[in-house]
Fold:
Amino acid sequence: MSTPIAFLKGHGTENDFVIVPDPENALDLSRAAVAALCDRRAGIGGDGVLHVVRSAAHPEARAMAGEAEWFMDYRNGDGSVAEMCGNGVRVFARYLQHAGHVAEGDLTIATRAGVRTVHIAKDGDVTVGMGRARLPEGDVTVTVDERSWPARNVNMGNPHAVAFVADLAHAGTLYDAPPVSPRAAYPDGVNVEFVVDRGPRHVAMRVHERGSGETRSCGTGACAVAVAAARRDGTDPAVTGTPATYTVDVPGGRLVITERPDGEIEMTGPAVIVAEGAIDADWLARASG
Ligand SMILES: N[C@@H](CCC[C@H](N)C(=O)O)C(=O)O
Structure:
């Protein structure tokens, strides 16, 4: 029998992850292995995997090793690779604290979208500097059944289409990815957010994530929603010169997003470790095919 592989389970506003500490990048976490881990019946279950690797030990992160000791090698539930995961980076920071690698306060984490700054507060919430949004030009349309909505193309390191709708139920079951057109606007696929107003600078959303399906929360998605809402509401900080803060309710909780006049975005929310265990390495090897 092979040596078991340590894992933890954690979530941020119920966007849940299998955390696999692998400081020296010794594991071969294939696409099939990640999908098996995330399987909610035959595996551990999660929206994605947070593979915890020292930046110096990962080819995609080596160049960031001087700025951030740890690299979040994030994978979606189907095993695909994504550039960024906003809830994931908060849970990743919570894991580093839990494992004694870092203390409360400020730290940096390398991601495929670049180095992110994180603050672990005494009250338990974790804030992450999400960088700036990009807003590619061009009209985008999201469709569910017989309804279509104009959507805003927002890139938070990963791609989003944000549609303001009259009722979140209009998003339907979200079992399948809602069609977004033109497809050429998103050559690598897209995360789709459906948004309703709850009050001044307060919205609620549902999301269909690329590579994971409908999830209970998406941090980059919540940031994309806040950015789109600010442009719609005339509160774009680059225009008004004052920060815009939006409360974004997700099915799994609440995130608070602030965009500053220089475009930098901060997101605050909870991050929780719920379990620790050991993966049967032989099972994982078989699952990897
Ligand atoms: N849940 C994440 C986003 C994860 C990546 C996304 N599915 C993609 O493929 O871009 C978040 O909290 O940001």
